[in-house]
Specification:
The protein is α+β, with helices and mostly antiparallel strands and about 250 residues long. It is built from nine helices and six strands. The longest helix has 18 residues.
C-alpha cells in the first residue's frame, strides 16, 4: 500500500522498480493504479491530462529510447467495431502506395494488428508493418512514407511509428522495424496465431471491447489494458511457432 500524499515521483519510481523486477507484465495501468490509490479514486477517474502525463513518462521506460517527434494528437473516442471484410483491401491499396514510394528500401510490407485477422473486432485503423534493413537509418525510408500522407510520430530503439498527418483522420498507422528483429517477429507470429486459433481470437475480442468501454477517452489506456492478455497470447504464439515450424520468411503479408 502507498500512503495518501505520496508524491508522483515516488510513485513513478516505485512503479519503475517493480517493472524492472517483474518484467513487461507491469505496464501503464499499474502506474495508473498506484497514483489512483494514493488519491483514493478509481484509475479511470484520474484526470485525462494527468493520465497523459503519466503515460508520457511511462513510455520512456516501456520503450527504451522513446522520443515523441510530432505533437501529441487528441485520440478521439476509442471505438471497437465489428470486423470489416473490406479491411484487407484497404491494406492492399495502402501497401501498393507505400511499396511504389519506398522501392527497394522496404524488404517486406505486412498487414498487422487486429484488422489483419479475419473476423476480429477492431478499431477501424489499418496497421502496416514495414521491415527495412536498419530502422535507425530514417533517411532511407521516412521521406518516402511521408510522401504517402504520414508523419513520423514517435521513435524508439525498436521501431518508428508513423500516423496519418493531421488534419486527416487517423485511418492508418505505419510501424517501421528492422528485418530480423524481435519486433518484426512478435507482430507477425501474434497475427498468424490469432488467424489460426479462433478461441484466442474470441478472448482477444472480448478484452478489446471491455478496454474500449472503460478507456474510451484514453488511447494508451486502451492499449495497455490489453497488455496482460497480449503477453500471454504471444507466449502461446511462440510455442505454436516452434511446434509448427512457422517462420517470418514463410508468413504471408
Amino acid at each position: 500500500m502507498h500512503a495518501v500524499g505520496s508524491t508522483e515521483d515516488e510513485l513513478f519510481d516505485a512503479w519503475r522498480a517493480r517493472r524492472e523486477a517483474e518484467g513487461d507484465h507491469v505496464a501503464l495501468h499499474d502506474l495508473y493504479d498506484l497514483v489512483a490509490e494514493s488519491r483514493g479514486v478509481a484509475p479511470e477517474d484520474l484526470d485525462l491530462a494527468e493520465r497523459r502525463e503519466l503515460a508520457a513518462r511511462a513510455l520512456e521506460v516501456i520503450w527504451p529510447g522513446f522520443e515523441q517527434v510530432a505533437p501529441v494528437r487528441p485520440s478521439g473516442r476509442i471505438e471497437v467495431v465489428d470486423a470489416d471484410p473490406a479491411w484487407p483491401s484497404r491494406f492492399a491499396a495502402l501497401r501498393d502506395r507505400l511499396s511504389h514510394s519506398l522501392g527497394d528500401a522496404a524488404l517486406r510490407i505486412d498487414h498487422v494488428g487486429s484488422t489483419s485477422v479475419p473476423g476480429l473486432d477492431a478499431k477501424p485503423i489499418i496497421d502496416v508493418q514495414i521491415s527495412v534493413l536498419d530502422c535507425a537509418d530514417e533517411l532511407a525510408y521516412a521521406p518516402a512514407i511521408i510522401t504517402c500522407g504520414f508523419e513520423l510520430y514517435s521513435r524508439d530503439e525498436e521501431h518508428r511509428f508513423f500516423s496519418v498527418a493531421p488534419p486527416a483522420p487517423r485511418t492508418a498507422h505505419v510501424h517501421v522495424c528492422s528485418a530480423g528483429s524481435s519486433f518484426e517477429y512478435d507482430h507477425l507470429v501474434f497475427r498468424d496465431y490469432l488467424r489460426s486459433h479462433p478461441e484466442a481470437c474470441r478472448a482477444y475480442a472480448s478484452i478489446k471491447r471491455e478496454a474500449a468501454a472503460k478507456w474510451a477517452d484514453d488511447r494508451l489506456g486502451y492499449t495497455y489494458a490489453k497488455s496482460d492478455l497480449i503477453l500471454d497470447l504471444l507466449e502461446e504464439a511462440k510455442a505454436w511457432a516452434l511446434q509448427t515450424a512457422w517462420s517470418v520468411e514463410d508468413a504471408p503479408s
